[in-house]
Amino acid sequence: MVKMSGLSVEDNPVDKAIIEKLPDGQNPHVDEVYKARWVWYHTILAIEIAFTNILLIAILFTLAVK
């Protein structure tokens, strides 16, 4: 089994939760887990970038007002 983040898919509780959400009768594949991780990773990055942009706009506004 392919190791991701130090744990095999069977031993990782996050991966187990993802596999449990797969449709019935479907074999849990590592590709499905990878796709789910990819989506969550990029969602978190997008949120962080949005917060950074808000902070930068606030700093710009503060500097423009002074």
Arithmetic mean of pLDDT = 79
Largest sheet: 2 strands, antiparallel
Radius of gyration: 19 Å
H/I helix tally:
2
Helical/strand content category: mainly alpha
Keywords:
2 strands; mainly alpha; 66 residues; 6% strand; two-stranded antiparallel ribbon; single chain
Task: Note down, in words, how this protein is organized.
The model has no long low-confidence stretch (mean pLDDT 79). The termini are far apart. A hairpin with a 2-residue loop joins strand 1 and strand 2. The chain is mostly helical. It has helices at 13-20, 30-65, and strands at residues 3-4, 7-8.
Would you spell out the secondary-structure blueprint of this structure?
Elements: E1 3-4, E2 7-8, H1 13-20, H2 30-65
Sum this structure up briefly.
This protein is mostly helical and 66 residues long.
